[in-house]
Design brief:
Keywords: Cytoplasm, Methyltransferase, Nucleus, S-adenosyl-L-methionine, Transferase. This protein is of the alpha/beta class and 285 residues long. The chain has six helices and ten strands, in the order ββββαααβαββαβαββ. The strands form two sheets. It has an eight-stranded mixed sheet, with helices on both faces. The protein has a two-stranded antiparallel ribbon with strand order 3-4.
Length: 285
């Protein structure tokens, strides 16, 4: 493995927050939070793969039809029902490219990349269980199979023994089933207590801050899940999501107002394919 950034410890666990995971304005009660087992991969939906070249690194991305999975026409978002998890958003690719430089080293590509680079435990989260069954789990399996077949000729030692787990649910409730949350650790008075052995060392999230109404739930979930005091959050997002009001700068204002975390801009992408995209790194003060 290439050298890590000075001062950044090797990471053990991460939480991969899915693409556009939380509803903007739910019109229905959110689905129940649950863990999706790898064996629950859907066999009724057509799943195809295609390679994605990320500057010398090739990962596989899956493709499924929203009509087959949700009986919906081709769309990116229906609040409270489908939160865009079947589409590969630009921020996911931005995040992988940035991690290649920063760490030296949904579709779930950032989480898959982290597993191949040494993370021992990777937890994926999406609003829709169907996204996990029909796309994320098959995508993880396809990339693991591809890399395991190339070990004999690949000079890098890919970690294919990482533990991958998958969790579905809304950001306001999913902490109840995630294994690495501070709220699940109680003292003798049944009150939550800080525990440095609890929490995710790294949280990766791409295109998750588009909805103003969802930002408070997302931010509170991050604080419940991040390891204290050394946990790190990487966020890839558009600077502004026109029409819905969210964006990386709106999330930054939430962080600054709370005063618990600090952030730094580590990458900016202005390639003309969309409005300006950014990758931020956050840590607890």
């Amino acid at each position: 493995m290439a050298a890590k950034q000075p001062g950044l410890e090797p990471y053990k666990t991460q939480l991969g927050l899915g693409f556009l995971d939380a509803p903007q304005k739910p019109i229905l009660p959110p689905p129940p939070c649950l863990e999706i087992l790898p064996s629950e991969v859907s066999s009724s939906v057509k799943y195809t793969v295609e390679p994605v070249d990320l500057g010398g690194l090739t990962l596989l991305k899956g493709r499924v039809s929203t009509r087959e999975v949700f009986n919906l026409s081709n769309c990116d978002l229906i609040p409270g029902k489908y939160e865009g998890g079947l589409k590969l958003w630009e921020g996911s690719l931005d995040l992988v490219k940035t991690l290649q430089k920063e760490l030296g080293c949904g579709h779930g590509l950032p989480g898959i990349f982290a597993g191949f680079e040494g993370a021992a435990v990777i937890h994926f989260q999406d609003f829709n269980a169907e996204v996990l069954r029909c796309l994320t789990i098959p995508n993880v399996n396809a990339n693991i199979l591809k890399k395991s077949q190339s070990l004999a000729t690949d000079a890098r030692e890919w970690n294919i023994d990482a533990e991958f787990r998958f969790f579905a649910g809304d950001w306001s409730e999913v902490h109840q089933i995630l294994p690495c949350t501070h709220t699940n650790v109680k003292d003798q008075n049944c009150s939550p207590v800080p525990d440095q052995s609890v929490g995710y060392d790294i949280i990766l999230m791409a295109e998750t801050v588009y909805s103003i109404s969802a930002l408070p739930h997302l931010y509170e979930l991050i604080k419940k899940c991040l390891n204290r005091p050394n946990g790190v959050l990487y966020m890839a997002a558009k600077k502004h999501y026109f029409g819905v009001g969210g964006g990386s700068r709106r999330f930054l204002s939430v962080v600054e107002e709370d005063g618990v975390m600090a952030g730094s801009l580590i990458a900016e992408v202005a390639d003309g394919s969309s409005n300006v995209r950014e990758v931020w790194k956050f840590h607890l003060k």
